[in-house]
Amino acid sequence: MDRFDTIVIGAGVSGLTAARLLASEGRRVVVLEARDRVGGRVVSDRRYGFATDLGASWIHGITDSPVAAAAEALGMRTVEFTVGGYQPYSRPIAYYGPDGRRLSDDATRAFVADIEAVDEVLLGVVAESAPDASYRDVTESALVAQAWDEERTQRVREYLEHRSEEQYGAWIEDLAAHGLDDDVVDGDEVVFPDGYDRLPRSLAKGLDIRLIHVVSLVRWSADGVVVTTDHGTFEAADAIVTVPVGVLQSADFVIEPPLPEPHASALGRLRMNAFEKVILGFPSKFWDDDVYAIRQQGPEGRWWHSWYDLTPLHDRPTLLTFAAGPAAVATRDWSEEEIVESVLVQLRRLYGDRVPRPSHVHVTDWQDDPFSHGSYAYMRIGSTMSDHDALAVPIGGVLHLAGEATWTDDPATVPAAMLSGHRAAQNALGRALAIEATWA
Ligand SMILES: Cc1cc2nc3c(=O)[nH]c(=O)nc-3n(C[C@H](O)[C@H](O)[C@H](O)COP(=O)(O)OP(=O)(O)OC[C@H]3O[C@@H](n4cnc5c(N)ncnc54)[C@H](O)[C@@H]3O)c2cc1C
Fold first, then answer.
1. pLDDT digits (tens, 9 = 90+) for 337-381
2. Mind listing the pLDDT tens digit for each residue in 133-153?
């Protein structure tokens, strides 16, 4: 049996960051990865000859972002695309009313002002909310405070439902009142025309990574850690476990002795979401120029309500929409063709026969991915923001949990994954490390 200083489980951005930092300090590190590739939930598909991101695509605000710093240092090309935070109108958005007709500029301005009015009240309502309040509870209180008629209230209510679905892949009644507290975009947002996966692929260079090694058991004690995979057993002084919450909660991944408190309870309050991408490339463009996104209001927008114009990435007419929350759950067993048809019905309501059949299609299936069980974790009712950090407290001096869900400030993101990997490396080493060493 090989003995290492540190075993890192998972070659996503979190695991790669931790492994790189420790290896640069001279530690003997091995990374065990279940898939046949690195990157985890950062994955770019090139089947049509250009890069399409099937997992993460945005840096949700480049100001002070370590991922933005890494991308710049690695020479990764970016395209500004500041509509990734479900903002009401961060950049031009074409809104369509319940009748399928585009809203005038004045009507759009009024709708956006209504959302902003609710958001202003919402901050205070969330701050004072009961521990078992849902995001629905707090948004309803903020809506009632406006004393609007039903039609006006309903338009904003829908927007708030969709924000919960698109930002966290969760139905508004399942998300904790504080579930969107972290939802702040600092600076412009950007995406990667050459693929986000250039980041993990660069971070992986020079590391000892064992692909297609599925970990089933992590046994820890004061003497160190023994990790069982389908390709043998590995031993080390300590381990950094970066698998997603969905894997940590599954019976296929056993930690022995089981996670202590507060880790076990904090983990129990988080849940993997239902959030899938549907990307449609068209032979010709049928939507308006100069808009970043298209949004549909009303009952017809229950599932398919927002489309993002990815055309500038490759100069090919392309729209991205999401099956998020209830839509992802309901369509989980649908074929790709059924999902595409369902999206096209809604697009044709808005644009009629001008909508051709797509020439390029990507539909993801993160819910059925055995190495993630969903796209990212959300806060169930009863959870608190501190549940994220609670997971990262070192266990017995030998076991460290890392990954997007263990970072409180903006979890569910690539920066959270990177920062959590940095923290885990520091905890394992017992001293501070410059995060810049990750991409140096
Ligand atoms: C559809 C989608 C859209 C997203 N959009 C954005 C976005 O726009 N911006 C953003 O910042 N973030 C986004 N995210 C979230 C972001 O991708 C994640 O937060 C981040 O990549 C998580 O990194 P990680 O290292 O924590 O986990 P992962 O990337 O999941 O890495 C964990 C690794 O562990 C491996 N593993 C799992 N089980 C085992 C096992 N039993 N044995 C060995 N290895 C195992 C996995 O294969 C994986 O490689 C999105 C995610 C998805 C899925």
1. 999 999 999 999 999 999 999 999 999 999 999 999 999 999 999
2. 999 999 999 999 999 999 999
Distance CA 205, CA 30 (A): 13
pLDDT at 183: 82
CB-based pocket (< 6 A), ligand 1? 9-15, 32-35, 40-42, 55-58, 60, 84, 214-215, 242-244, 247, 253, 275, 277, 364, 366, 371-372, 375-376, 403-404, 412-414, 417
Q: What's the CA gap between 34 and 321, in Å, rounded?
A: 29
**pTM to 2 decimal places:** 0.98
Residue with tokens 């017809």: 300
Ligand 1, pocket-test mutation among 44, 191, 211, 243, most atoms within 8 A of CB: 243
Ligand 1 mean position, distance from CA 40 (Å): 5
**Cβ-based burial of 214 (10 A; exposed 0-12, middle 13-18, buried ≥19):** middle
* CA nearest ligand 1 atom 5, residue: 56
Strand partners, 219: 226, 256
Asked whether the predicted pLDDT for residue 1 surpasses 70, the reply is no
Q: Which residue ranges form the domains of the chain, and what is each CATH number? A: 2-14+26-34+209-271+389-438 (3.50.50.60)
* Buried-state track 130-148, b at ≥16 Cβ within 10 A, e below 16: eeebbbbbbbbbbbeeeeb
Q: For residues 325 and 363, what is the distance between their CA atoms, to the nearest angstrom?
A: 15
State residue 384's pLDDT score. Answer: 92
Please report, for the chain, how many H helices and E strands are present, in that order.
13, 20
Asked whether the predicted pLDDT for residue 246 surpasses 70, the reply is yes
